[in-house]
Every structure is written in C-alpha cells, then in structure tokens.
Amino acid sequence: MGSALIVVVGVVLAIAGAILYVQSGRQIQQDARTEYDLGERSRMPPELATATLIVSERNLGATVAGSRIAVRPDQVYRTREGRVVTVETKTRTRVSTYQSDVIEMSLQALAMEDLYPGQVAPYGYVRVIIRRQGGGTAPPKYVRVNLMSRDKIEALYWRYQGIVDGSIQPTCNPSRAACARCSHRAVCPAAFL
C-alpha cells in the first residue's frame, strides 16, 4: 500500500510540475509579446498606437478590372475612429518609400474595401526597418503614403496588360535602379542597357 501511495503522489507531483512549467512558459511568451507590443506601439503614429490589429499576413484578393489579384498585407489596423489602415513592412538601408510600395498597398486597400466597405483610409503606412552597417537593425520608422484610387490602379492594370500583349509600347522608366530590378528588363526594348 505504501509504494502505491508513493507512485500516486509522484504522478500528481509530475502532473503539477508539468502544468506549472507550461503556464510559466506561456507567461514568459505573454510578457515578451507585451514588451514587444509596448515598444512597437510607442514608435507608431498615434492613430495606429491606439488601433486594433485586424489582419496580419493573410492571403486576400483584390478585384481589379474584373480580375482577381492576390495580395497579402503585413498588417491592417482599425483605428478608434473606425478607419481601416494598411501597414507594409520593408527592410531598407535608408528611410525611403517607392511607387511600388504605394501600388502594393493600394491593391491591399482594394481587398480590404471588399471586407470593410467605405471604411478603408485613402492612405497607409510603410513601416521601414533600417539595416545597420555591420549588422542589426534600427527601430522602425513609419512613413505615411497616399494610396492610389481604384481608377488609377485599373489604369495601371490595363497598361500592364497592353504591354504584355504587345498592344502598348513600353516606355523607359526614368529611374535606372527601377529599370535594373524590373522582371521584364531582358525583353523590354526601352530598357537601359
């Protein structure tokens, strides 16, 4: 009888220890998340710092000129005022935004408009993380950008379709750097050589 009691007490202690271990791990994770969230929110624009995260890294689709285009916003927040605001994170060597960021975020906003009609802000934020020389990163900077209207996005879509099918002649991008990164450079007659 005595050895059976020892086994039962041992099992109860092992289960209690396992429960405490799991709970302490959860608390450590929660504390780390809370510390990160407080630090991150202190760097955000005021409207985002008090907003609620409603979408994070979720595959969505935007309808443009009758075609479905896949998008994946990094984060989307609902402000206290009820605006839905997109945030796109970019890692760069300096604080900068590009037209490609605006196009990407405009498509994300169109996808959010399907889910939250009339609530999507006409602007978003590029969250720029700066790579430091020698390694590591600096705290993020948030840069507000104005998004493109549906009409402008559809015009870009039809221009792209025309270039692909040959009905529109491409023009040279005034930025040599943008031209150098373009996936169509090899076949583009207007590319910088």
Q: What can you see in these coordinates?
A:
Helices cover 44% and strands 23% of the residues. It has helices at 2-43, 46-49, 99-115, 150-165, 176-181, and strands at residues 52-56, 60-64, 67-71, 75-78, 84-92, 120-130, 141-146. The longest helix is centred in the N-terminal third of the chain and has 42 residues, at 2-43.
Briefly, what is this?
With 193 residues, the protein is of the alpha+beta class. It contains five helices and seven strands, in the order ααβββββαββαα. The protein folds into two domains: 1-43; 50-170, Trna Endonuclease, Chain: A, domain 1 (3-Layer(aba) Sandwich).
Instruction: Count structural domains.
Output: 2
Q: What class do helices, strands and sheet pairing give? A: alpha+beta
CATH architecture of the largest domain: 3-Layer(aba) Sandwich
Strand order, main sheet: write it out: 1-4-5-6-7
Count of β-strands? 7
Spatial extent as radius of gyration: 25 Å
Topology-level CATH name of the largest domain: Trna Endonuclease, Chain: A, domain 1
- Low-confidence spans: none
Quaternary state, please? Answer: single chain
N- to C-terminal distance: 89 Å
